Amino acid sequence: xxxxxxxxxxxxxxxxxxxxxxxxxxxxxxxxxxxxxxxxxxxxxxxxxxxxxxxxxxxxxxxxxxxxxxxxxxxxxxxxxxxxxxxxxxxxxxxxxxxxxxxxxxxxxxxxxxxxxxxxxxxxxxxxxxxxxxxxxxxxxxxxxxxxxxxxxxxxxxxxxxxxxxxxxxxxxxxxxxxxxxxxxxxxxxxxxxxxxxxxxxxxxxxxxxxxxxxxxxxxxxxxxxxxxxxxxxxxxxxxxxxxxxxxxxxxxxxxxxxxxxxxxxxxxxxxxxxxxxxxxxxxxxxxxxxxxxxxxxxxxxxxxxxxxxxxxxxxxxxxxxxxxxxxxxxxxxxxxxxxxxxxxxxxxxxxxxxxxxxxxxxxxxxxxxxxxxxxxxxxxxxxxxxxxxxxxxxxxxxxxxxxxxxxxxxxxxxxxxxxxxxxxxxxxxxxxxxxxxxxxxxxxxxxxxxxxxxxxxxxxxxxxxxxxxxxx
Length: 473
Fold this sequence. Notes:
473 residues, alpha+beta, 6-stranded mixed sheet, 9 helices
């Protein structure tokens, strides 16, 4: 009887062990295919580990108890399947399912040369905002139609809604009119507030749009999308911060990217508003540990694409790292079509050719040549004797010059100040509705003092790529 009892005990333990292995396998497997054939050397990730598919497109990735998705880093030359504008590069992990196959589409265009558009801060708060967003998208749709020869996609840098998560479906349905892939970033107003921790704050977003961090490729460019809105719960607050899980994943992801490829990192909160790279505080408008991201990007030409501020600006950190902060789609919270720094509602236009990059800002409702606004003498209460220019996509490589009655007068003086129109709009509280809206001082302002108030004035702006724009006053 004792021997029989021991045998039964061993049998019971073996059954329990096998059952546990079935519930917690050592690996998840699958295949990445295109037109029925396996695709080799595709990066597959669970958000913690990254592996490559073999010659037949098959992969094996370790099982991780905290992984919510299995997803692919779409390789150059291919596209993911789509649900309208939503790229389906991911699958939710379902308990008890351990095989996940993916099907890619061969890109019909040569993606070595491609365009992408960057928008930020749509901030839909109510139904009428959705209608206004649809009007804005007519401009973007027109731009896409005029550039149909390009491989083209859109990056949305977050704050899709203004704490109205129920509008996620309306936002997506409205965006689908573009008929191109749109890769989304979670913003601080896209998080679920009132939950007990950061890890619960992005669950609703993930259900609608997939993982909060991921990557994909086009030609010789690698795109990384991150969540740097770290919810800390206290009084519904957040900080700009990249958690260690994400940093470890970036490191693994970049291990597959050649050093001669461009790298773009898209996130909601800016890394920094200045060139200084020291971070000593936990801030809601800058990324407190951005230096850790900079370290991972060393060796690449990298560009950070951000939103959050509702203003436009560029920061050149060094020869290989630059940040582009994009103005808000919603302008002054859908009460005016310019932002509080005077930048018109619009989007960034980036053209990649091999590993070379050019960019401009496209103001919605204007031709792309509309790159600045000039103000005559008397337009500004702060500087009533001066002419002013607001050059919203300016950086140190631009030139802003002026002419008086045809005579070249030199470069305009760069200063930090208010855009006159933005200041006037924000002062009209009946128009902007919200008491907390106010104009901001911006660094892309320029001024000059004419000798003759009645003279014919011309402002001439040259961007870093040699494009020239002129306005006569």
